[in-house]
Design goal:
The chain is of the alpha/beta class.
């Protein structure tokens, strides 16, 4: 059994009722599909006037004789109608035709009911997979997304899951509906003519062999096509995100060529897959028609020459033989479909089974309310091969503002990533009130931290809903108060819909300064005891920076703040300024103390003064 089948069973279990009913109705469909062909026999016999005459009404004995009892009972009533002066042969024919209609009605009713339950099963499993996959993606640590393309994840979430829904559950028809239709038909055919049925036994394995040879490489090609589709979505996402750069550097041709190359590769793969898919049905039908032709020739001889087979029985037999062709074609199509589904499922479960590189301990505790200090004790960290922090030590007392300064690449933003536990350190320890952050629940840790990053991350929603991410139960008055503190009150008030204004994709309807002030307002609304400002004022113009800096200083009173700053003018009032270089502390002290030393910090201040 394919490993992906075992993986999907837990998602099917909540819908096992639909599975059972689908199997039941598919079985009944297969049974009535055969019975509907057999009911043609009484009709033909009435037409050709060679039906069996039964004058005595049959007596019921046991369930094992239900077939012969039903047949005898039917012929009894037909005989009665034919020999009755008040009725006649036309009424016997009407009874036979009515029986044909009834059996075909039941056949199609069971087909609908089977489809009804498979639809509920497919849609239910798809919904459950979508929720599980989204929860998994949103729960994966930040390092995972630095290695994976967002477009590829989107392709797995949308395209691959849809492929699993559309094709994976064809397996129920592959192992139940169509095979049973063939089995029931063959049982009936064996009862009619053993010699003729031997030709069918030759056809089925030959057809299966040919079709399996055609589809041998289909799963591998499907997997490659789905990977290329992921790259395509990723390229579109990157192009739209960086459209200003693409246009600004006249790079449209470069991106068009990349896109065209990807589309061509997908086209070639899709054509190869489609050609093999398209070949399955006509190939199986052709092999079936060849078998039908042989049956017609051989069976015709039995009827016309040897006279060992009744003409009516032969017509019914040929109907049953043809009845095998449709499920045989469906099996070949379903086998291809399942291969596509297997390839898609492999990509879906590859994400679902990713191990968290920043795992939470099984006995992790809730972090108590912050009351003392944050300690980084001999911390060493690297993203890949090179150390970003090496034997780093820092103590941040409650209520104090600590600023981290230094050149790009000195490790400032890394400290913000480590304190929020977006990444785990390789050596040393980080403690909040003496609790190692690896031993507390990540949710309880981040609940006590407000984060404002250099890049303003906003969502395609209203201003209000963007701020409510910080505090879902906040009132409108609290939102306006947070906007005032962040100096965003005036421009929001000037908007036609106020806090209910939609700000567009990534806040595209706002200026850089406005977006950053909304990010600050979101952190203000959350009102956490620890605030991390990662170059939070870097996107603001001079006037906005001054106003927001005043607001931030008010907000940081009696609050523990870690400020990562590029503009040194914004951190002069910090309780402690830590100067970093290549992951180590080279100086620390207040603004005045560091200037008096005339060291690294003084040189940075002088350099920025000259730049201005």
């Amino acid at each position: 059994m394919d490993q992906n089948l075992l993986r999907i069973i837990p998602f099917v279990k909540p819908y096992k009722r639909h599975v059972i009913l689908n199997i039941t109705y598919n079985t009944l469909y297969a049974l009535f599909s055969t019975i509907s062909m057999l009911t043609l026999l009484p009709m033909l016999e009435v037409l050709f006037k060679n039906n069996q005459i039964i004058t005595d009404k049959p007596v019921w004995h046991q369930w094992t004789e239900i077939g012969s009892y039903s047949k005898d009972l039917l012929y009894y009533y037909m005989s009665h109608l034919q020999n009755d002066d008040n009725w006649g042969p036309q009424y016997a024919l009407l009874l036979a035709v009515s029986l044909v209609i009834i059996t075909f009605l039941f056949k199609n009713l069971f087909s609908y009911l089977a489809s009804y339950h498979i639809t509920h099963l497919k849609n239910g499993v798809l919904s459950k997979l979508r929720i599980t996959m989204y929860n998994k993606i949103i729960g994966l640590p930040i390092p995972y997304f630095s290695e994976k393309r967002k477009g590829d994840l989107m392709a797995r979430m949308l395209g691959d899951l849809a492929e699993v829904q559309n094709s994976f559950f064809s397996i129920l028809e592959l192992i139940i509906k169509e095979p049973l239709t063939i089995v029931f038909s063959i049982v009936a055919m064996l009862n009619i003519s053993l010699k003729l049925t031997l030709f069918v036994f030759v056809f089925i394995p030959i057809s299966g062999l040919v079709i399996s040879r055609i589809g041998k490489t289909l799963k591998a090609k499907s997997l490659r096509a789905q990977q290329e589709s992921g790259l395509l979505i990723s390229l579109v996402e990157e192009t739209l995100s960086g459209l200003k750069v693409v246009k600004g550097y006249n790079a449209e041709t470069i991106f068009k060529n990349r896109f065209n190359d990807l589309v061509q590769r997908i086209l070639n793969l899709s054509n190869a897959i489609g050609n093999k898919n398209n070949l399955a049905s006509p190939m199986s039908e052709f092999l079936g028609i060849v078998t039908i032709a042989v049956l017609l020739w051989y069976g015709g001889n039995l009827v016309l020459v040897d006279k060992t087979l009744d003409g009516s029985l032969f017509i019914v037999y040929m109907s049953l033989a043809y009845n095998i062709l449709t499920p045989a074609k469906s099996i070949s199509k379903a086998s291809y479909s399942v291969k596509n589904g297997m390839a898609a499922a492999e990509r879906v479960f590859e994400v679902l089974e990713v191990e968290n590189s920043v795992p939470e301990s099984a006995d992790a505790i809730e972090l108590p309310a912050f009351s003392d200090c944050i300690t980084m004790d001999h911390v060493s960290f690297k993203y890949e091969s090179d150390w970003v922090l090496r034997d780093f030590n820092l103590k941040i007392p409650r209520g104090k503002t600590v600023a981290l300064v230094g050149q790009s690449g000195s490790g400032k933003s890394t400290i913000a990533n480590l304190l929020t536990r977006f990444y785990d350190i390789q050596e040393g320890g980080i403690y909040v009130d003496g609790h190692p952050i690896t031993s507390v629940k990540a949710e309880s840790l981040r609940k006590q931290i407000g984060l404002v990053t250099q890049e303003s991350i906003l969502f395609n929603d209203s201003i209000k809903n963007n701020l409510l991410i910080g505090k879902p139960d906040a009132t409108d008055d609290e939102i306006w108060e947070a906007l005032k503190i962040a100096n965003a009150h005036d421009f929001v008030q000037d908007m036609a819909d106020g806090i209910f204004t939609n700000i567009g994709e990534s806040g595209g309807k706002l200026s850089g300064g406005q977006k950053q002030r909304l990010s600050i307002a979101r952190a203000v609304l959350k009102n956490p005891p620890i605030m991390i400002l990662d170059e939070a004022t870097s996107a603001l113009d001079t006037e906005s920076e001054r106003l927001v800096q005043d607001a931030l200083e008010k907000m940081m009173l009696n609050r523990t703040s870690i400020v990562i700053a590029h503009r040194l003018s914004t951190i002069q009032k910090a309780d402690l300024i830590v100067v970093m270089k290549k992951g180590k502390i080279v100086e620390q002290g207040t603004h005045a103390e560091l200037l008096a030393r005339e060291g690294a910090y003084a040189r940075l201040v002088q350099l920025q003064t000259l730049e201005q």
